[in-house]
Each structure stands twice: as C-alpha cells, then as structure tokens.
Design brief:
161 residues; mainly alpha
C-alpha cells in the first residue's frame, strides 16, 4: 500500500502539538514526545529538519522549545513532506523500473503520473490545521484525553506484546 513514510507521519503529528504567534507557548520536545509516542532522539532529529526548512522556530535552553513559524493553515502536508523527505523531483516508477519515463514508459506509467499529480495537488491543499482538527475530533470521539494521547497508547501496546 502506498502511504507517507512513518517519519513524515511523525513530523505531522509533532507539528499538530505546536501553535503559532507571539503569545504561543513554546512546547518542549519531551512534551511532544510524550503526547505523540515519538521516541525523543528521533523527534529531535525531526524537529531539527523542520527548523531547517523554516516550518518551526526553536529556542534552546531554559524556557526553550518549539513553535510554528507560520499559522497551521499556511503549512501544507507537502511542505512537511518536502522538509522531511526532500523534494520529489525524480518520482520513481510504480513497478520499480529504473528506466521508466515518458519516452520509455512501463504499463502503469501514464496512470501513475496522473495519480501522483492528484496526490501532490491534494497534499498541497491539505493543511496542518485540517490534520490538527481531525486529530482533536478523533481524540474527542474516542474519549481519549490529551494526557492519554498516542504516547500512552503506544506504551500500552508495547507492554501487551
């Protein structure tokens, strides 16, 4: 099945914990890790990449943390994906062939080129705000409070294995 990488999914979840604006409280990495279940060392690398891409602001040290560099409605899923995975200039063949192009197309080339364009358009239009709203609605619908977020659910799952 085709989907975003786990790393990009983690980055999106981490960003849903942040706010934008001068009055927005900075969120510490340990709090993001606890809320999302993302391992802290892995999260630190993600936050560094997101900062390098200009999606978040960072402040080190006492009273440090992270905040969105712009409003959530101005950050697209494509922005986040490119910050984590880099630009997708050279999309690969759906069948995994090295020599697939418009000139030398595999049987799925035209289909995949059109679908890839549709996916990219949807990712450019879908914003972090929409994802955050969905997450909040999902937590409310399932009765999960913020203190029982994915982090504690992940701990419970790992203990049951």
């Amino acid at each position: 099945m085709l989907s975003l990488s786990q790393t990009t999914g983690y980055a999106i979840r981490a960003l849903t914990c942040l706010r934008f604006g001068e009055s927005a409280a900075l969120v510490m990495a340990k709090d993001i890790a606890e809320a999302t279940g993302i391992p802290l060392p892995y999260l630190s690398k993600l936050m560094h990449a997101l900062g390098q891409a200009g999606l978040i602001t960072t402040k080190r040290g006492y009273r440090g943390g992270f905040a969105l560099a712009r409003p959530a409605e101005a950050i697209s899923l494509m922005d986040i994906t490119e910050a984590i995975e880099g630009p997708n200039d050279n999309a690969s063949c759906l069948l995994g062939l090295e020599t697939c192009s418009d000139e030398r197309a595999c049987p799925l080339h035209r289909f995949w080129k059109q679908e890839r364009q549709r996916i990219e358009k949807a990712m450019c239009q879908m914003t972090l705000r929409e994802v955050a709203k969905f997450e909040a609605h999902l937590m409310k619908a399932t009765g999960v409070t913020e203190s029982q977020s994915k982090g504690e659910q992940a701990k419970t799952k790992s203990k049951s294995k």
